[in-house]
Amino acid sequence: SRLKAPMRLLVRPGASADKVSRLRALGCEVVEVDANNHKALVASLEGGSVVISVLSGLRDVIVEAQTQLLN
Known about the structure:
- The protein has helices at residues 17-25, 38-45, 59-70; strands at residues 8-11, 29-32.
- With 71 residues, it is an alpha+beta fold.
- Strands 1-2 form a two-stranded parallel sheet.
- The chain starts with 7 loop residues before the first strand and ends with a helix.
- The relative contact order is 0.17.
């Protein structure tokens, strides 16, 4: 089914092309961004009103990458 509201999804560099294709088929805007690149992360979030993070991983992801979202 198609989305009822615009949705931009941020994915890690090198995300599975198949998964990205499926997200786009659902109507999502998919942006590849390195969470450690603050400037790129800020640019990718511009215009958004809500951030829902579903990052998973070890400390470098859970703490450091999530902190980038807060900054």
